[in-house]
Every structure is written in structure tokens, then in C-alpha cells.
Design a protein that fits this description.
The protein is mainly alpha-helical. Helices cover 78% and strands 0% of the residues. The longest helix has 32 residues. The chain binds zinc ion. Zinc ion binds next to α3 and α4.
């Protein structure tokens, strides 16, 4: 999804009607890609069966996997903030 959005911005910039993507937007797309990678990494960790998680209540996780879940939520909030900033930047480029 992120790469498709970046291609879309580049395509719009290439048509000559809009200013090209700038350093700030590139940095934000990089940040968004990093967050996406981090979320995927943490999701893969919690998908693996865990003996420590099996020993506690049904809807709870062991400390390591509870930390993964908290980090995923934090990464998702950060990604949402970046998307909002990029949306504003893209609106300025195309507006
Ligand atoms: Zn666990």
C-alpha cells in the first residue's frame, strides 16, 4: 500500500501539474515504511505459538508478547499520524 501511494505521488508530480515530491515527503514515506516493517515483524512474533502465553488466561499474553502488542498499537498510532501529515502534504501538492 505504501509503495502504491508513493508511485501515485510520483506519477502526479511527473505530469507537470504538481510540484515533485520533496525531501520531507520522502522522509515521511520512509518513516511510514519503517513503521509498516516494524508492525509486520511484531505481528509475526505474536503469531508464533508460545509456551509462556499458553500458561496464562485466555485473552492475556506473556510479558514478551504483551510488549509486542503494545508496540504494534504504538506503531499503528504513529503510522496514522504520518498518514495524516502526508495527506495534508499531498493535498497541498495537488491542490
Ligand atoms: Zn508469549
Amino acid at each position: 500500500m505504501i509503495k502504491a501511494n508513493l508511485r501515485k505521488v510520483r506519477r502526479r508530480a511527473a505530469d507537470g501539474k504538481h510540484r515533485p515530491i520533496g525531501v520531507t515527503e520522502r522522509r515521511l514515506f520512509g518513516r511510514l515504511q519503517s513503521l509498516d516493517d516494524a508492525i509486520a515483524y511484531r505481528r509475526a512474533r505474536i503469531a508464533v505459538p508460545c509456551a509462556d502465553c499458553d500458561g496464562i488466561e485466555a485473552d492475556r499474553r506473556c510479558d514478551d508478547h504483551a510488549c509486542d502488542l503494545m508496540l504494534i498499537a504504538a506503531y499503528q498510532r504513529s503510522a496514522a499520524e504520518v498518514i495524516l501529515i502526508l495527506s495534508g502534504a499531498m493535498a497541498q501538492m495537488t491542490g
